[in-house]
Amino acid sequence: MSGEPSPHLAKPSLTERSNSSSSSSVDHQEHQEMHAPIPTRPRLITRKSSGTLIVPRDSTEVGPIEHEYEADDVRAMSPRRTSEDLENLGREAREELHRHAMALQESLLMLFNRIEAVKEEHDKLDNNNKFLQKYIGDLMSTSKITSTGRGRK
After folding, report:
1. What is the secondary structure of 102-148 as a DSSP string?
2. Cα–Cα distance between 49 and 108 in angstroms, integer?
3. Of 4, 34, 85, 93, which cross-links 81 as Cys (Cβ 3.0–4.6 Å)?
4. How confident is the model over 69-86, as pLDDT tens digits?
5. Which SS3 state, helix, strand or coil, does residue 7 take?
6. Structure pTM?
């Protein structure tokens, strides 16, 4: 057992640490003062058993409870819609859909007209380009003919 370190020798006591360095003992004391004791969890309150939830089928205690509400109470207003409300909602939805379709058709027509105008402009520029290429080609060929004719004289 002399080979095993003694627990008293493994950890120096507080007084031994204070002898080695006064600042470390102050740090150790501050460290101990900063930590509060570990809180314990409060005990749960015990409850009585609610008993069985099984109720016989013929019991009158089972079922929805009917409540009477005043006319202006929010709970009295039904979330269900009447056939007239549904008809109005459907009509409004169809009108909105029709307006949206008309706007899309109008924008499509504007795009089509713009494409046609760009095509016409392209064709016009392409024809002008071909004309200029032919004109330049003719000038080059006539200048070659005239330049070779002058050189022979």
Report:
1. HHHHHHHHHHHHHHHHHHHHHHHHHHHHHHHHHHHHHHHHHHHHHHH
2. 72
3. 85
4. 776 777 666 667 778 888
5. helix
6. 0.38
